[in-house]
Amino acid sequence: MDTIFALASAPGKAGVAVIRVSGPSAWRAAEQLAGALPKPREAVLRRLKDRVGQVIDEALVLLFAKGASFTGEAVAEFHVHGSVAIQRAVLRELEEMDGLRMAEAGEFTRRALENDRLDLTQVEALADLIESETESQRIQALRVFAGALGERVEEWRRDLVHAASLLEVTIDFADEEVPVDVSGEVREFLEGVIAGLDREIRGMDGAERIRTGFEVAIVGAPNVGKSSLLNALAGRDAAITSEIAGTTRDVIEVRMEIAGLPVTLLDTAGLRETQDLVEKIGIARARDRAMTSDLRVILSDERGMPDFDVSDGDIVLRSKADLAGEAEGISAKTGQGLDALISEIGERLSDKVQAAGLATRERHRVAFLEGRIALEDAQSLLSRGPDSYDLAAEEIRAAIRALELLIGRIDVENLLDEIFSSFCIGK
């Protein structure tokens, strides 16, 4: 492979910038820039010099040996002062060296995958970890990046390989006496893996919501205080508030964190009968988004409840409690009930992710379902007796292939370009 290099920290001016070099010529490049090299994993202060001996910067130089680095290759890192001019100067020197080239987007991580330092689920988790905005997203992505999903899949794979091998031994000695009926042991392996797949499939909705976020719709009649409540919860004027009915025509979204979870609050158009064509469209959108949201906060006032079908999981509140002089209810103006509302939203959403699994993406769901279907077919064939063991073993191998595709062992080239398109250069 070529030796590649890139700025591994965020672009622009900073206190410190990290420039990474990975590949067979990484240490040679470090020696050309910094002179005498440190021992692997031992950071030393060195003056970096250009081709004519001019000092570029004083930097920490750190080496990683092949097999002990993020990419699995020999790696050199330069921790330089974060001046944009210094970054450019070091990158320019590296670009002039023979055998070195600028890394493409995600190429360091791609090499980690190719060198078995990461599996495909860990690569996806790294992308999620970089994009994480809330504590729950960070924790979830870190668990998968640490290899938790890959380890679980590997356990299932080992059990299935064992089950298939038991059947294949029976097939190989079909003409001889086989002292033990293996169907019970094989069935036990299959049931264990199916149970594990079912747990992950059930937990995917919660896990996916942690990754992509929840939607909480604020629903009510015109002028009931929806926009004021949105602004109060967001801590800024995200929506226009007015005494004129029908001010909100489209769905207004505000992203925030509640109970460590990513939440998008939706301010919807006031629900009422109207002849205004534009307002009608807004009301239709409000109903659609409210029905598909994860949670609804329904506001009422002295006019009563809005024209909306309330379900058991909805939070129903009396708005403008300060004007009504009520101890119960909520007031965006005085802040009455806001803390309690935020707490209740957090509790409701936290309940939805209690059983969250490790799998977070649609391709994970597809792999689990394909594996489960194959194992159910294997169970059915197993019940027919030894004459169908060869077909049962083939269905088990199909399930194994689905799991191997999940972690990136086979047939993943068509997935890689899509996955790495979300990575930046230097990662």
- Secondary structure: helix percent: 40-55%
How would you characterize the largest beta sheet? 6 strands, mixed
**Quaternary structure of the protein:** single chain
CATH architecture of the largest domain: 3-Layer(aba) Sandwich
Poorly predicted regions: 241-247
> Number of DSSP helices?
15
Mean pLDDT: 85
CATH topology of the largest domain: Rossmann fold
User: End-to-end span in angstroms?
Assistant: 17 Å
Jot down its keywords:
about 425 residues, alpha/beta, Gyrase A, domain 2, Four Helix Bundle (Hemerythrin (Met), subunit A), 3 domains, 6-stranded mixed β-sheet, 5-stranded mixed β-sheet, about 45% helix, flat
Structural commentary:
This protein has 427 residues and is of the alpha/beta class. The chain folds into three domains: 3-114, Probable tRNA modification gtpase trme, domain 1 (Gyrase A, domain 2, 2-Layer Sandwich), CATH 3.30.1360; 123-203 and 359-408, tRNA modification GTPase MnmE domain 2 (Four Helix Bundle (Hemerythrin (Met), subunit A), Up-down Bundle); 211-352, Rossmann fold (3-Layer(aba) Sandwich), CATH 3.40.50.300. Helices cover 47% and strands 16% of the residues. The chain is built from 15 helices and eleven strands. The chain has helices at residues 26-34, 84-96, 107-114, 120-131, 135-145, 148-172, 183-202, 204-212, 226-234, 277-292, 321-324, 338-352, 362-382, 389-407, 413-420, and strands at 3-7, 16-22, 44-49, 55-64, 75-81, 100-102, 214-219, 252-258, 261-267, 295-300, 315-318. The strands form two sheets. Strands 3-4-5-2-1-6 form a six-stranded mixed sheet, covered by helices on one side. A five-stranded mixed sheet has the order 8-9-7-10-11, with helices on both faces. α4 (120-131) packs antiparallel against α5, α7 runs antiparallel to α13 and α13 (362-382) runs antiparallel to α14 (389-407). The longest helix is centred in the middle third of the chain and has 25 residues, at 148-172. It is flat, with a radius of gyration of 29 Å. Residues 241-247 have low confidence and may be disordered.
